[in-house]
Amino acid sequence: MLPRSNSSGKLFPFIFNKLKVTPNEPFAPSFQALFSTRIVGEKPILVRDFIHSALYDPNHGYFSQRSGAVGVLERSIKFNQLEGRKAYMKHLDKIYKQSGIAWFTPVELFKPWYAQGIAEAILRTANLSVPLKIYEIGGGSGTCAKGILDYIMLNAPPRIYNNMTYISVEISPTLAEIQKQTVGEVCSHLSKFKVEHRDAMDRSGWGDVEQQPCWVIMLEVLDNLPHDLIYSESQVSPWMEVWVEKQLDGEGLSELYKPLQDSLIKHCVEILELDKNDTKRSSIVSKAWSKLFPKPRRCWLPTGSMKLLEVLHAALPKMSLIASDFSFLPDVKVPGERAPLVSTKKDGQSSDYSNYLDAKGDADIFFPTDFWLLERIDHYCSGWLKLQKDKSSLQGRKRRTITLDTSSFMEEFGLPSKTRTKDGYNPLLDDFKNTKFYLSVPTHNIK
């Protein structure tokens, strides 16, 4: 990925955007909003619905207008033949100009090594006494699927490859066809691979509860899932959920604050508050201080991730999960904890908005992943954290989880020597400092 530069000219080579068609369509509003000039109709909508529409509306959403092509490299980059970082960046610049693609995902830039690192992690961790079953949500062009199938075919016992199943859950019919073509480059893969064209957040699409162990892969999926926003007037004032409504003149949008009532928002707030000392927060000193020096608070909540994990745990209670995404984003102008980067590109130049309400189908909205919170949500959706509120419960943890930097993950499971240039520079290990991998597997220590 070509680096972005901020106003001071400092490069951030570890920031990468990506062209991506939505892997799912969560939180469809219950009304038909008019998109001719603006997203919000006559009724207020939650922030997550505004973001979903701004990104995924079939006619005017950001991805819908930019989903005509997916970044696919014709051939793998031969890193060992490049002198160093300067040569690598020059090579990338050439690739972008030749392809006309705005962004490439890391699984594409580092194919096949990125996908093969994921495959190795699965083989080391999976219960191979049962047939291997892998789901990938939002599989893009199929590069990850093909890389994993290639690796297992060449490195695992034949029975593992012969009996495995790889299912891509893909909302885009165009990408579904591209994935079939990519994986079909190896004929034997086609009998193991299939695409299910559906919404991953729709519980009905998963059918009956699957009791067999399986794996779920989500690469750069969490960052574009809709989020909600909560607001508090001061440090000790109660949180309120944020809605978006038209201004009276009908020419702009504004925020509307309501008491917490949405179940997803309330559950996320509950998770955030689990470890806080309510007595301390509501102390006389704290209240007096907040009245003298009130400080409004804004907090973004990954309700889209929570909804998806709720569905996955309900449908696949014995799933193991691998997810990778941004852990932080520099130069974010939108206020609030875990705020998104709202970015548009005109005439080849990136421009960032300071207000998410300015994004009306012309800008990408992507969020950093709070991996601590992701882990808590994962435990919560598995049923463990709910039980812990009952102090008498003997219930054990239902998940074993770990978060790794991308460099740590690839050094453990990948082949870092394959992405190293002649002078020792390694873009996979050196440039992606703002991305992490999250691994979560079920346990059997229920007492």
UniProtKB/TrEMBL annotation:
Compartment annotation: Mitochondrion
GO biological process, one term: methylation
A Gene Ontology cellular-component term: mitochondrion
Pfam families: Methyltransf_28 (PF02636)
Catalytic activity: L-arginyl-[protein] + 2 S-adenosyl-L-methionine = N(omega),N(omega)'-dimethyl-L-arginyl-[protein] + 2 S-adenosyl-L-homocysteine + 2 H(+)
GO terms, molecular function: protein-arginine omega-N symmetric methyltransferase activity
Keywords, in A-Z order: Methyltransferase, Mitochondrion, Transferase
Family: Belongs to the NDUFAF7 family.
Function: Arginine methyltransferase involved in the assembly or stability of mitochondrial NADH:ubiquinone oxidoreductase complex (complex I).
Protein name per Swiss-Prot or TrEMBL: Protein arginine methyltransferase NDUFAF7
Lineage: Eukaryota, Viridiplantae, Streptophyta, Embryophyta, Tracheophyta
